[in-house]
Each structure stands twice: as C-alpha cells, then as structure tokens.
Design goal:
200 residues, alpha/beta, binds inosinic acid
C-alpha cells in the first residue's frame, strides 16, 4: 500500500499529494529514497516521458509508482513549449524566465489568438511494468502579464476558460478542481483503486 510519486519537483508533488487523497495508499516522494535514478526526460511526447519515469523508478525501487509529465501548448506557437515547457527559455530556465519569454513571444497578439491548453499525463507502474496511463487537459488563454502569487510554473499567465483570473490568482484549491493534473489524477485514481496487487 505504498505509492511513490516519481518526481523531484516539489510544486508538482504538493498538488499530487492533495489530489491523491482518498486513496488507501501511503504516499512517498523520491526524496525518501537515496540513490533513486535521475530519469532523463528525452521523450518526444508527455506520455513517453511519464511512462519512462514511472517504469525506471518503480523498477529501481521495486515499488508502485506514479509519474507526471505535463506542459503548456500555445496555439499561436504551434503547440510550443509543450514537452519542453520546463526548459522553454534555455539552460538554467526558471519559472520566471519561461513566463517572460512566453509573454514576449505573444507581445501584441490579440486575446482571441492567445488560446492555450495545459496537458498532464500520469503514468502508473508496478515494479517496472506499466499498469495504466491517464491524461487530463485544461483549456484557457495566455494573459498579457503575470498575475497572482500561488501555484507554480506558468500559473501566473494562464487564464482557464470560463474564468477571468489566472491559476496563480485563484489559489491552489480552486485550481485543483479544474486543472489538467486533477483530471488526470482522477482517472489515475480509478485505475489504481482497481489494481489488485496494491492491496495484497
Ligand atoms: P515536466 O513535466 O517536469 O517536464 O515539467 C513541466 C513544466 O510545465 C513545469 O516545469 C512547469 O513549467 C509547467 N507546468 C506543468 N504543470 C503546470 C501547472 O500546473 N502549472 C503551471 N505550470 C505547469
């Protein structure tokens, strides 16, 4: 009944832990295990990266693991940054430098052309074997400036459809009701709760 979240991203981990509530598992992060592999995210899709992380970590630890790979696809940029969301502004990229680059590339682009979609893929693996994959999407648009202090990554520039606030302005509990990650984890929880060996 132990589940390892295969990430070293503390922001993602915080959200995933909250979203996994209700599942009869004890959640650990990679930080609890010395020597866990540093998985190279060289896949061409979010799914490839999520599956690779889940397999490598669950195989190494001989445990049940979930991995998240996520990104932001911007229509005006033909789907970029997508799988490269974390490294969008190059070597040493930070959340701030990524948002700055995104706002610069969309400078003078009208609201109607600022459509974007957050995607999250959750891969679930048991001792090196894939058990299931779940995807979640959240559509919205990119604002004209960074707004709000909560969340992480592109949250200050992403305004979900039907809202006039960024993810970072609305706060994590509201974000967690509508986000790409919450939708993917809802599906993942159904897969996990039906997976027998977790409860042996
Ligand atoms: P990766 O999944 O580790 O490759 O990184 C995904 C990157 O996408 C993060 O570093 C963030 O910049 C961005 N990202 C993923 N999910 C979110 C989110 O929920 N809010 C804001 N940014 C996100």
């Amino acid at each position: 009944m132990e589940l390892v979240v295969a990430t070293r991203n503390k922001d993602k981990l915080r959200e995933i832990k909250v979203l996994l509530k209700g599942l009869a598992v004890e959640v650990f992060s990679l930080d609890s295990f010395k020597g866990a592999p540093e998985v190279i995210e060289d896949g061409k899709t979010l799914e490839e990266n999520a599956v690779k992380k889940a397999i490598q970590v669950s195989e190494f630890l001989k445990k049940f693991a979930v991995a998240d790979d996520s990104g932001l696809e911007v229509d005006f940029l033909n789907g970029d940054p997508g799988v490269y969301s974390a490294r969008f502004s190059g070597k040493g990229a930070t959340y701030k430098s990524n948002n700055k680059k995104l706002l610069r590339l969309l400078k003078d682009v009208p609201l109607a052309k600022r459509k974007a979609c957050f995607k999250c893929v959750i891969a679930i693996a048991d001792k090196g074997r894939i058990v299931g994959v779940a995807e979640g999407k959240c559509r919205g648009k990119i604002g004209f400036e960074s707004k709000g202090k909560s969340g992480f990554g592109y949250d200050p520039v992403f305004i979900p459809d039907s809202y006039n606030k960024t993810f970072a302005e609305m706060g994590t509990s509201r974000k967690n009701k509508i986000s790409h990650r919450s939708k993917a984890l809802l599906k993942a929880k159904k897969i996990i709760s039906k997976y027998p060996s977790l409860y042996q």
